[in-house]
Amino acid sequence: MQTTPNVQAYRAGLLTFHADPAFSERAHSWYEDGLLIVADGKIQAAGDWANLHATLPPDTPVTDYRGKIITAGFIDAHIHYPQTDMIASPAPGLLPWLEQYTFPTERAFADPAHAAGVAEFFLDELMRVGTTTALVYCTVHPQSVDAFFTASEARGLRMIAGKVMMDRHCPDFLCDTAERGALESEELIGRWHNRGRSQYAITPRFAPTSTEAQMELAGALARKYPDTYLQTHVSENEEECRWVKQLYPQARSYLDVYDRYGMLRPRAVFGHCIWLDGQDRARLAETKSAAAVCPTSNLFLGSGLFDFEEADKAGMLMALATDVGGGTSFSMLQTMNEAYKVARLKGSYLPALRMFYLSTLGAARSLHLDGTIGSLAAGNEADFIVLDPQATPLLARRTARTESLEEMLFALALLGDDRVIAATYSAGKRVHAREG
User: Fold this and answer.
1) Longest Cα–Cα distance in the chain
2) What is the pTM of this model?
3) What UniProt keywords apply to this chain's record, in alphabetical order (predicted)?
4) Predicted confidence (pLDDT) at residue 75 exceeds the cutoff of 50
5) What element of type H or E holds 192?
6) How, if at all, do strands 131-137 and 159-162 pair?
């Protein structure tokens, strides 16, 4: 017996991407008076109201968001949920920040109840800022992963996460063994990967906190489970790069350390990627690995400036990311704000359309999830957000004077924050509505 689809419709300005605006003149579609049609958690159609509204089944309710913009939900390509409670912690640099704040904070995640409480708050915050998918670091504790996925599954969210693997250069209370880290990771893959909308990421924290034995085992897992993700950090900080050179003198570069263990591949995402050279960038592009660009974190910790121009020359996959708690905001709009300034300081320019692309379809392509999320294309999962250009008095005043879509999006990126997100939808279900 065939059931009738559960259809919802939304009227608003619609923005969706088909390609990277840096390389295509027809990268996006904009419908000033648009209609988004959703059925059973999937996007059925998106286009002009005038062309589509007659196709709606009789008596279909239409949610009226006129004056607002609907676009795909934001995708955060690098974030640490256990660091929620230590965001905005002062330190002179990356390594002392890890010692003073990160490791002590992560210790508490041995307690499942604590992990669950942080996971609930963290996911609520992501929904509030319009982030519908994130690539998430947990802690060394398997229970931190279970708590995270339990909370995200209850909300019906598409999330990717993994247990951190660390077996040296960290406090004893966080130190794994190489074998236990691999065994627990494999058990978590079996428990959570591709269960509903949950996907697993093999997660060696970064090369300095893993022995060669652990790197070998992480690489072996990456080969055994090629449809899992792999996430780690690379070339974030000059002091860190020098440390890696001492620990792995045989490697040509920091990135080459991971390459030697078979970790460069599709669905591998490397946080930061600041201090790369041309060979590194070419290798990332060749292997279809991706860079997660973390501007608020890199500025906060004084790590350096990502080079968008050189990344584009190499043809690298890349996405924007918050890197909370080194990053200073959960908001992808605030992340765009800082990314724009980083690009200017490096002598290049990021149009607003490009920044929105890197937070939606560009991020989905970096995760090899285009065709599933990241745009309003028919058949995609209905993860979308509603942006309010009048969310604050200043925004309302500025956007009333904009003369193009680019100007409007630029104002949202440079002046916007969580208040801009009027509503967040995941698989067609509203999971956040702004109060007021």
Assistant:
1) 69
2) 0.97
3) Hydrolase, Metal-binding, Zinc
4) yes
5) helix 178-192
6) parallel
